[in-house]
Structures are given as C-alpha cells and as structure tokens.
C-alpha cells in the first residue's frame, strides 16, 4: 500500500525495506529477462541454478531535501539513500560461468532499487550506523545463504555476491 509523506508520524526519520524482500521483488520483476537470458545462451529454460547474482550497493547523500519537495513545511534536514542494483546474473554450465544478464546502465535511477531513505546528514555517523546496521546484518546473513524462487513454475536457486562500489566517500567508513 502506498502512503503519502503526510501519513507517516512526524518523528519518522527513515523508511526501510527488508533486504531479502527487496531482492525477491527485484528478481521476480526480472523473471522474463532471466528466462530470455537462458534462451539466448542456448540453455534449457528449466535450468534450476544456482544463479549467481552480483549486487552493487550504493549509499549517498541527497543533499538538503527542503529544496527538493513540493508543498508543505520546509524540512530542515538532509537525506541519505541506501540502494542496490542487480549488476549481473550468471550460471555455471559445463564448468563454465555463463552470464545471462548484465545491467547496461548500472548508474541509472531506473535500475537502482532503494532499500532505505532517511532524513539524516551523511556526516552524522551515529544516526547512519543506527539506521543502516540492520541492513548490513541482513546482507551478511545473505552472503552464505541460498534463495529459492518459483519462476515459470520451476523452483530456482540464487546466491548473492555483494559489491559496495557505489558508496559516497564520506560513508565508506560506516557501511
């Protein structure tokens, strides 16, 4: 359910999505791309995996949001966004790694999936650490796990490799 900014309590400083749920949603949105990628590489469309997904994480300051919203009272705070991009998906077939998907525009807003939007200054390390720590813990748990998703009626397994190449220089120490 979509909510308006006015629907959130005044003291809300962050909106965060569960990392695993966001990855499931992103992969399900790409079901057609994954199946087409298998076909384009002459692989059976009933291939179960494992699929290796490379994820680029990004965390950057968005500046003073009081200048970036429409109507309503001025918001005297800055904002920070933590997001991810599915960079590539590959499979191992006959001892070779075969890439079935690669993001053509990795820096595009269209492929960037937000995980957390927060009203905080990027130099406020205490607040950033408090808000981002659960995301970091979720990412660490997923590094050694396998996700099974039903795509086109077939259970397929996915494993993840995380790359933190899109961090703002000021935030590298924190995340």
From TrEMBL:
<feature type="domain" description="V(D)J recombination-activating protein 1 RNase H">
    <location>
        <begin position="53"/>
        <end position="174"/>
    </location>
</feature>
<protein>
    <submittedName>
        <fullName>Recombination activating protein 1</fullName>
    </submittedName>
</protein>
<dbReference type="InterPro" id="IPR058554">
    <property type="entry name" value="RAG1_RNase_H"/>
</dbReference>
<dbReference type="GO" id="GO:0042803">
    <property type="term" value="F:protein homodimerization activity"/>
</dbReference>
<dbReference type="InterPro" id="IPR024627">
    <property type="entry name" value="RAG1"/>
</dbReference>
<dbReference type="GO" id="GO:0061630">
    <property type="term" value="F:ubiquitin protein ligase activity"/>
</dbReference>
<dbReference type="GO" id="GO:0005634">
    <property type="term" value="C:nucleus"/>
</dbReference>
<dbReference type="GO" id="GO:0006325">
    <property type="term" value="P:chromatin organization"/>
</dbReference>
<dbReference type="GO" id="GO:0008270">
    <property type="term" value="F:zinc ion binding"/>
</dbReference>
<dbReference type="Pfam" id="PF26025">
    <property type="entry name" value="RAG1_pre-RNase_H"/>
</dbReference>
<dbReference type="GO" id="GO:0002250">
    <property type="term" value="P:adaptive immune response"/>
</dbReference>
<dbReference type="GO" id="GO:1990238">
    <property type="term" value="F:double-stranded DNA endonuclease activity"/>
</dbReference>
<feature type="domain" description="V(D)J recombination-activating protein 1 pre-RNase H">
    <location>
        <begin position="2"/>
        <end position="51"/>
    </location>
</feature>
<dbReference type="GO" id="GO:0033077">
    <property type="term" value="P:T cell differentiation in thymus"/>
</dbReference>
<dbReference type="GO" id="GO:0097519">
    <property type="term" value="C:DNA recombinase complex"/>
</dbReference>
<dbReference type="GO" id="GO:1905347">
    <property type="term" value="C:endodeoxyribonuclease complex"/>
</dbReference>
<dbReference type="Pfam" id="PF26100">
    <property type="entry name" value="RAG1_RNase_H"/>
</dbReference>
<dbReference type="GO" id="GO:0043565">
    <property type="term" value="F:sequence-specific DNA binding"/>
</dbReference>
<dbReference type="GO" id="GO:0033151">
    <property type="term" value="P:V(D)J recombination"/>
</dbReference>
<dbReference type="GO" id="GO:0042393">
    <property type="term" value="F:histone binding"/>
</dbReference>
<dbReference type="InterPro" id="IPR058553">
    <property type="entry name" value="RAG1_pre-RNase_H"/>
</dbReference>
<dbReference type="GO" id="GO:0030183">
    <property type="term" value="P:B cell differentiation"/>
</dbReference>
